[in-house]
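Forum: Protein Structure Q&A
Topic: Joint prediction for protein chains with partners

I've read a bunch of threads here and the consensus seems to be that you should model interacting components together rather than docking separate models afterwards. I'd like to see that in practice. Below is the full input, 424 residues plus whatever partners are listed. Could one of the regulars post the assembled result?
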Amino acid sequence: MVSTPPAAVSAAAASAAGRRDSHSVESLLSVAVEVFNVRGYDGTSMEDLAKAAGITKSSIYHHVSGKEELLRLSVTRALDGLFAILDEPGAREGRAADRLEYVVRRTCLELVGNLPHVTLLLRVRGNTAAERDALDRRRDFDHRVAALAAAAIDEGDLRAGLDPRLTARLIFGMVNSISEWYRPGGRGAEKEAGELADALTALVFDGLRNRA
Amino acid sequence: MVSTPPAAVSAAAASAAGRRDSHSVESLLSVAVEVFNVRGYDGTSMEDLAKAAGITKSSIYHHVSGKEELLRLSVTRALDGLFAILDEPGAREGRAADRLEYVVRRTCLELVGNLPHVTLLLRVRGNTAAERDALDRRRDFDHRVAALAAAAIDEGDLRAGLDPRLTARLIFGMVNSISEWYRPGGRGAEKEAGELADALTALVFDGLRNRA
DNA sequence: GTCTATACCGTGATAGAC
DNA sequence: GTCTATCACGGTATAGAC
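Posted by a regular:
Agreed with the consensus. Here's the joint model:
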């Protein structure tokens, strides 16, 4: 690769000069996920990770078995967060349309609140075992949401004639796309995320058109 | 990488046995884009491309200067197709809301009709010069669509209070997500694409909710 | 337009001292 | 928990014959 870094990935830029940072699996993971999200998983070398973490390549192997374990840890975390939403009361009780709306809203918030891991998950392509496992679980999630959409159409709250599978795909295509541009805005980020979720939910359920 | 191929990428599987396929830049490009889209650009080696094309690595350099040129050719093609939409009469004449709807619909069709190149474009991360140039042009496209959304709100056809930039991002997040699951269905694909574009446009402008 | 052969470097990973 | 040193391998790319 002829790569010139997009924006000089030095997550631990501050400590870059010092070297010899002390790391746990946790701190290493958060550094790695940042770099993966800038460079892409395949585009990231152990050397890149080492530089960003402020240690040497070899030191990384003291914490994890290799690059793929870092990926697995990250996407597992993302998926656990998403599946947890489906077990919340708001996703299990009431009319299907309301449950669907709840899941859409909560998924937005979860994506924003867990942005690095979810972003990485959404970019996984299936080249390694860890990636394929993640894709399987994602498919699972999609199916459960499509079932929710189907129920909402049956109950008459969503327009008849909608294709539930397609509808679920389009909704979550929109939700997931947030990861491509959203950057947390420091304080007020929570309110910001709520407004984003509101805007998206309104668009999906009521559309853009003015009915005045 | 511990990679086991996801689905044995042999675009030219038929000719795999024979070897010594004859290639032009064009035929090589179409093979390369297929492989890039399965393996990811960074995850694809020249060896992968050579196998899929049925020639050796060295032969590829007879046609192009290297991997990055194949990427540049592909994303340029994708971007040219998208920008051409903005110059069509339907995108330039009439009320802004109608022009926006036209662009959304046409973008869906263009994405489906030019799927491999557009898919690759949407996955580009900015690691190389070719990728950064592509990202710049994408941003340009987004701005022009956001301006269209702003005009449509001003004219009163879209709900007041919408954020034009956010609206444009969400719409095209949904449109672009089609590339993650859509696979052309042989004959009838044109009708299929039209229905997909209709469904998406209806969702965006009128929402899912049943108003009966 | 393809091939074989090869240069050269970056890669993921390991061994073992401190 | 970090380091230096080292390894085998696979990566892009080139030279030159057919």
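Chain B touches chain A through 50 residues (CB under 8 Å).
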